[in-house]
Hints:
The chain is mainly alpha-helical and about 230 residues long. About 70% of the residues lie in helices and about 5% in strands. It has a two-stranded antiparallel sheet with strand order 1-2.
Amino acid sequence: MDVDFYVHGYQKLNVFGADVYITTTHVCLAIVMVILIAFAIVCNRVIKKADPTKTPTGLLNVIELLVETVDNLVLSNMGKTLAPKFKNYIGVVFTLIIVCNLSGLFGLRPPTADYGVTLPLALITFAMIQYQGFKWQKMGKIKGLFEPIFLFLPVNIISEFATPISLSLRLFANILSGTMMMALIYGLLPKFILIAWPAALHGYLDVFAGALQAYVFSMLTMVFIANAADIDE
């Protein structure tokens, strides 16, 4: 029996003398982006056509529910000062990650099962953490590296750079492990067992774990940025 982990190279390109490949990750990520862009266009048209004097119904009601949920979540974790600046970013990151994670339900290889996708997301968060820290704390950001005593400087520096590594690895490892488990099940078990049984595993590995990891990544992003800014409200 063959086990397919859905990692394939489709096209080799030469970029500045180096050979790079368009892989399954690129294709699946492109499909996810097309879906999200199409959804955003539909939502935009629905909102433009909405009558503010009438009670929202259908898709408009869903859109308002999603926006209010994200706004309240960001406000409760980042405070009144930071929430308006980051609610759009958190909403985009959460939506992208959860759609990527759920794409396995439709026969795609989740793009977040590739470290080349999760690491850039974590590095963006890391850049925001450092920027907000220097913006609000000024030199207090540097001073904090020497606390509680000077000898803790190496530990504090390692702690700072461990943030993007832990963020990216947590998401990557959880989604990759689920992808590999499903590949092993589909590749090694008899076909008649696969008629119904994997549905429960898809429900856990793709839906529950996928939604949980999207929530954890977004929550940690908000907490880390808020802690770096260290604003009272």
